[in-house]
Amino acid sequence: MENGVYNTTPFPSSEKPRPIRPRQSKPKQETLPLLSDVSGSAAAEEAMALAAALARAATRLLRGGLPPSAAYPALSSRSHLFCNLPADNEPSAPGGVEEPWEEAEAEILRDVEPVVELVKDILHSGRYEDGGLLCPDDEKVIVEKVLAHHPRLEDKIGCGLEAIMVDKHPGFKRSRCLFVVRTNGDLEDFSYRKCLRASIERAYPSHADRFIDKHLEQMLVRPPPK
């Protein structure tokens, strides 16, 4: 360029243009991570490890008999029914001090007797006709205190719990029992006796056999109050 004007005259044939050498970029210098970045990464790893440990602990607890809505996704449609389960229904920690029989007996009676009386009232009092669905209050108690403890809960629930129904026993037409109404409309009967036995055995392993032999069967066959 001369005086602000590009020179467009071609190079003479005897002269060759000089090759343009590419610029050599300076090698990048590696920078050490800041202390704040290192500490942040360590904190994140600790948080992830803690979350994993909590997840494993929660899984172990759920497998040990916590509210089934977490263990069995089929119950998710009615998961609110399993909230606020009483803490005294949880098994005693292994190696703990064993509760004296008299105290345990009175405690189990307080827990179980109202549930037994409600079940007998539902089945025999005439409040529900054959094929009747339980009202919300009765359903909540039956699901939390009875059905939740069935030894084959997942099989009984199937695709999901929609309601609890009273109807004739499929094998004994002169007696009535409780049914799971699944979300697809199928019905599945369940034994409240099995549920109550499993509940007592789980919550009071040291005294369950003695209590069941002494009280439970008598409570179940005793006529409901009029």
Describe this structure in words.
The protein has 226 residues and is an alpha+beta fold. It has helices at residues 35-63, 68-71, 101-124, 136-146, 153-157, 192-203, 208-221; strands at residues 132-133, 161-168, 176-182, 187-190. It has a four-stranded antiparallel β-sheet with strand order 1-2-3-4. A hairpin with a 7-residue loop joins strand 2 and strand 3 (176-182). The protein is flat. The model is unreliable at 32-39, 58-74 and 79-95 (pLDDT under 50).
Q: N-to-C SSE series?
A: HHHEHHEEEHH
What is the count of helical runs?
A: 7
Overall radius of gyration: 36 Å
Major beta sheet, strand line-up: 1-2-3-4
How many individual β-strands? Answer: 4
Decide which structural class fits the backbone.
alpha+beta
- Separation of termini? 116 Å
Oligomer: single chain
Task: Name the shape in a single word.
Answer: flat
Uncertain runs are 32-39, 58-74, 79-95
Helical percentage? 40-55%
Portion of residues in beta strands equals: 5-15%
Query: Roughly what is the average pLDDT, rounded to an integer?
Result: 74
Taking the sheet with the most strands, its summary is:
4 strands, antiparallel
Jot down its keywords.
alpha+beta; single chain; 226 residues
In a nutshell, what does this entry contain?
The chain is an alpha+beta fold and 226 residues long. It has seven helices and four strands.
Structural topology:
Layout: H1 35-63, H2 68-71, H3 101-124, E1 132-133, H4 136-146, H5 153-157, E2 161-168, E3 176-182, E4 187-190, H6 192-203, H7 208-221
Helix pairs in contact: 3-4, 3-7, 6-7
